[in-house]
Amino acid sequence: FSKICNSKTLHYCVKYERTNHNTVTIYLVNYERLYETEKQLELFSRVVGSGISMFAGSTWWIDSDRSTKQFFQSDNGPKILGMEISENKLYNVDEFQKIRNRAGNFSEFYEESLEAEAASFVRMKNGETDYFGGRTPCTTVNEEIVWVESYGKCLIRYPNGLPRFFVAVDLYMTDIFEKINQLEIIQNLTEYGLTGARVGLWYYQRHFLEGKYYCTKSYNDLMNVGETYEKMSVFDMVDVQIKRCRLFNPEYEAYLENFKNTHNNLFTSETNTYHLHIPNYSKNGELQWIEVRGNVIERNSDGEIMLFVGINVDVTKSFLRNQELERLKIQNERLQLAEQLAVKARDLIVWYQDEEILKSKNHVFVNCVVAEKLGLTRTKEGLITLSDFYSTFVRNDTESKKMRKKFLKRLKSVYTLETDSVKKTLTKNLNFKTNEVVYLEHSLQVSEKHSDGSIRLIGGISIDVTENILYQKRIKYLANYDSLTNVHNRNYFEKYITKSLPMTYSITIFDIDGLKLINDAFGHLEGDKVIVQLAAFLKEIYTNSIFIARIGGDEFAIVSYETDIIKIRQSEASLYNLIEEYNNNSMIHINVSKGETVVSDNEVSFDKAFIKAENLMYRKKLNSRNSRKSKMLDSIVETLRTKTEETKEHSMRLSNQAVLTLRELGMVRSSEIDAIQIISKVHDIGKITIPHHILNKPGKLTLEEYEVIKKHSEAGYKIIKNITESDEVCDGVLFHHEKWDGTGYPQGLKGESIPIFARIISIVDVYDAITNDRVYHKAISHDEAVKEIVSLSGTHFDPNIVKAFLKACFNIEVEQYLLETNVSGDEISKLNLVSASDPLDA
């Protein structure tokens, strides 16, 4: 059927077949589309670039549904063969073959090539492949031999596999393969676009089993190849050229090696073209540069190259010129890159106004950095308005206003021709997109002027100096402010009282009580939190002071114009109310002592006024010391009980048993009783410094974890030393993990060199720990615990204190107990228990 489309009549045939019970496959073939193949067969002409057709194509197909004795063919083939043109484009297969058979009288290759083509067709017919092809000689209407390259494909098959519809194209090759016409081809090439150039043509053709290279005489002349090289392959000739390069210019050898590898790659890959330059030496030894273009025209079904065409052109002058241009281009690109990197590295906004831009009076050309730094959008021409730039100045900022005023004044002096340049002037700008503050340092210069002195070209740079400005501000800030609390520091305090002190003023000094104890007990981070919190309270209360300064680790000074002592006391009361409210909701309490004094008309020196205020502060500090220490101790003990299993009941049991043991040993003074009771309460106070995951680990500790645990006795000593002046109490805390045989810690003391309070606590603590449930063990019975204590007598424990402990607390006589139970001192750790005081003791 036919169809008119875009004023063109298109012809189709439709074929259908039932592929199964439910499916019909329909094939639609457009004849015009098949003929289009011929228009796409100018490969050779495109390779050499001459525009001359080196062959003619003829499309044909066989529709077996209509006939196997006739075939459709376009007009080119019959014209070349001298056949009468058929109007319906149908030709008889047998008649067509008779005309082709005439070539057998002229070509020795005819029978062999026809046989190869027929074998290819049979493979397609039998369904081994869908493709067929061949190359056979043929005689034209003028009885000239041409070679016909045939390529075909079966598009549709019958259910039994036989071809139903297949299409092919015949390429009638001209005498390109004949040496006699090669010079004519070269002449045509020079006439069509290569005039004046020295050209050499070469090609590779594989007829049947092996391929061969052919070169024109002009190729031999161009490449300095003699008659002796006629039978060489292209690789042999390249090797000769490589030897020449090694002799004259070894650095050019890489070009030839690249060509050799590139050409070889065509035979081992699907690559079909290349275009490169190689060096060559003429007969007189001059260096030439040869442009080499190559293209694969045909591959067989196995991908092997059947026809390849190459062309060599002498392009020495243009190549050297291009090399120089490339060198200059690279140099220019490097200079531009260097400038760009310099701009980027310094965050430079580069701008200028030339004669054209100056006419608008409100535009300036800027580079792309302006978008990054200020969030401004440029026009396609790279312009922004000056008003947009001015709108980036930070508003409502004293510093920015001063900078803006100074910048605009200097800028005006340039445009009014008072000066030609401005150097390093700062502005404070805001990035429109990110809202970040940016400090820019501007420098500008008038580059060219008109004869009347007016500006012809002006430009400048703006450097992002934000980091430097902020760094300088930070240095200046740290010189006068305390980085922890953000109040003034000692340096500012001393400069002020030396240079700026008023005649009448008041000074108040606050000191944090027990800061060292907080640092020892809870760590310096908690101590810093107390300092920061007090500073925040001072800033909240003393808003009208001249300044607040942290003049020591735990000491603050406030200098104020306020001299009314009643109002000063009211401010102090407000501060204490804030502290009390904070303490009610905090585990760690803030306690402060204060002293103040008022100076009128500079009646006393600042040094004397300061000493007076400081003495008042220390006096109040001493008066509240005992109460403060007691409160602090209660706070720390409460923290211990929250964090560990050291319960109030545990402390009471230890205290009762320790007092009974102490009295059994004849130590009955009240000071001794008080000391042992305090140790019972605080002996493990250092455990508040141990990480929770170690302190409450249910399994066995690692050696590293055990080393952490062992530090709690020394940590407890430091804490308790801040609260009591009793050496007995402090030593009891420090040494309660020492052992009678010297294997304990922290100092490995032995025997009676261990303080007696520590020896007592170690026994009563172990007994209580193993008879009560802990996270790392279940409680054992009283009898088992007594047996354990007795078995450790003389190794872990002082034997005399073991006797006193068992008799005073349980009315057990050790000697009698040993006879009755037959427990010996060698039975150490048979119960495999873990002590709360020493998790690795057994």
Please tell me about this protein's structure:
- The two termini are 105 Å apart.
- A six-stranded antiparallel beta sheet has the order 6-5-4-9-8-7. It has a six-stranded antiparallel beta sheet with strand order 17-16-15-20-19-18, with helices on both faces. A five-stranded antiparallel beta sheet has the order 11-10-14-13-12, sandwiched between helices.
- The protein has 842 residues and is of the alpha+beta class.
- The protein is elongated, with a radius of gyration of 53 Å.
- Helix 17 packs across helix 18 (524-541) and helix 17 (515-522) runs antiparallel to helix 26 (712-721).
- The chain is built from 31 helices and 24 strands.
Summarize the structure.
By secondary structure, this protein is α+β, with helices and mostly antiparallel strands.
